[in-house]
Amino acid sequence: MDLKDIQITPELRGVLAVPEGKGPFPAVVMVHEVFGIDDAMRSQIARLASTGYVVLMPDLFSRGGARKCLNATFRALTSGEGQAFEDVASAKHYLMSRDDVTDKTGVIGFCMGGGFALMLANKGYDAASVNYGMLPKDLDAVLGGACPIISSYGAKDSQLKGASEKLEATLTNLEIAHDVKEYPNSGHAFMNPHQAGGPFFGFLLGKVMGAKPNPDDAADAWQRIESFFGEHLKDA
């Protein structure tokens, strides 16, 4: 699977993966975690694309790197508007303009990106995958009219205690198709193929948030995502 670094707009970079075989394919916008587009995120792009999706990850730190853009990106996530959401919209527009995609589009995110995927679930997508993403304060308002949602959380993630239960209850109340699962033996970022954040931040996150890979739980989460996306993006 070849990954290409592309220019989505004059100011926005991204990484694109196109599956082998004859299209057209459903499209998926993938939103990266707090460390940006690193090797772990490139692995996730390739993994999803290999199952039959054109996947594009916009670089939300294109305008100055993580240090400069991180605060603005989290402000956008908290408020539900801002440059980061415009960048994701540009990525979606780029995908939908391609001849090798269908009219079905999903969104998936990890960590910070999982929060974006949840906020975007009622913005014209056909399915959303939320992986250990923070919940907005007004969850009912954000999820009104949302597309089907699959989510994965780790019970050992100290920063997101109770998130899966609250999300499950809200989605059930709003009658939104969903698959919510909490993994008792995992913490934050358990789906990463290797420890993200480098030696210092990786060690710190492991101690504070239980953020470390869990290959068995990651395999189960990916199987659920592939099945859920297959139902709502390929067969619908």
Layout: helices, strands, pairs:
Blueprint: E1 3-9, E2 12-17, E3 25-31, H1 39-49, E4 54-58, H2 65-79, H3 83-96, E5 101-110, H4 112-119, E6 127-131, H5 139-143, E7 149-154, H6 163-173, E8 178-183, H7 198-209, H8 215-234
Parallel strand pairs: 3-4, 3-5, 5-6, 6-7, 7-8
Antiparallel strand pairs: 1-2, 2-4
Please tell me about this protein's structure:
The chain is α/β, with parallel strands linked by helices. The protein has a single domain, classed as Rossmann fold (3-Layer(aba) Sandwich). Helices cover 41% and strands 22% of the residues. It is built from eight helices and eight strands. It has helices spanning 39-49, 65-79, 83-96, 112-119, 139-143, 163-173, 198-209, 215-234; strands at residues 3-9, 12-17, 25-31, 54-58, 101-110, 127-131, 149-154, 178-183. It has an eight-stranded mixed beta sheet with strand order 1-2-4-3-5-6-7-8, with helices on both faces. Strand 5 (101-110), helix 4 (112-119) and strand 6 form a beta-alpha-beta unit. The radius of gyration is 16 Å and the shape is globular. The two termini are 26 Å apart. The mean pLDDT is 91.
